[in-house]
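Support reply, case 0932

Customer input (verbatim):
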Amino acid sequence: MKRRMGIILLSLLLAGCTAAKAENFIPEKPPAIDMNKDGEGYDKFLQEYPSPEEFKGKLWEFGAETFRDFVHEDKRNENYSPVSLYYALGMTAAGANGQTQKEILSYLKADNKEKLGQDIGTMYRWFYVNTKSDFNLSNSLWIDNKVPWEPEPKYLEDLKQYYFASLHHGNLATEESAKEISEWIKKETDGHLAPKFEPATPDTVMKLINVIYFKGMWTEPFLTNLTEEKEFTLANGEKIQVPMMKQSYEDIFLTTPEYIRGEKSFQDGKMIFVLPKEGSDPWTLVKDKEKFYEALCGKTQEEVHGVIHLELPKFDYKSDYMMTEKIAKKMPLPFGGEADFTAMGFKNSLISSVFQGTRITVNEEGAKASAFTEADMEKMAETQPEEPKELIFKLNRPFIFALQYKGVPLFMGIVANPTQE
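Our regenerated output:
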């Protein structure tokens, strides 16, 4: 019987049936580089790791294409991390062979396993260059100590070199192990996420977990004394009162017949807000892959620089995504009886589930967002300034957002009701 692998956003779980030989390890993360303090070191870094612009574009495409698959039908708040899912699935690709590997690579829009590892590793390092925000990206493997495990040496090397993944052993079917994993996620997200896990099933042999945490401060914080209760219209037409922040500032924006797009910068990164025009809604826009991609990051040549009069509601909520069925439709082999994860150390294993849990908080000071992805494997059974322009940008009905850091979409979502958690 094949083992099944389940994936959870910010956390990956693997299961199988092979006694652990590799020792626990916690790799050192790449050093943070500040070009203003270490110009020579920064120049050397650039020569070795050029900015992965093509890969950044792939992450935007991946995010726009996959988000529409995971949006819930009941028009709730959404907060999805494409980067977390990408890194989690990347770790499965590193342990796959043959057609199984090809399907995962195709889903990730990657040419081959070696290039995927290099791109992921380079982007990982860039996340820690000239950073002014609190940021953390961590990967980990949790191996059940009751079963033999003999991964190919190259698999472990790739996880250390490209993913900086830590390795842990334990009895995954115990409360103690479940608590340890929960505490690890809580620690890696600075307490922003604290999921509670049940003990793994007896067939579970491994968990792969990716965690992302971001805390950024606005370059121009909102004044708290200007925040006031204002009206927000829900998708069903109901009107509610929400704490609405207000500010006028200069930035770029875009107006089209279908939507308005505006931005607000962090000290390191930015949030992008997309408000569909009256008569439409975020869910319709998200379902159109090309139009959604365009709304997030396209038509940059048509953007203008001017004054944005922004009204933005405060919000703080969590999102959960059971991704298994939607991903399995796009890459069925890794979820089926013919899956090949032998490089990972399992001769008879498959992905059983994929789940993501996230949280996002936006207030006067800035934004905080976190996510985890888990996969289980079990036994088988900028533009030039123009003439001054102004934009009245009232986000007082459902809208789309993206949180961009180092040029990639860490998170994207929909605010349907700012008052719901």
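We compared this against your earlier run and they match. Two observations from our side: The longest helix spans residues 53-70. DSSP finds ten helices and 17 strands in the chain. Please reopen the case if you see a mismatch on your end.
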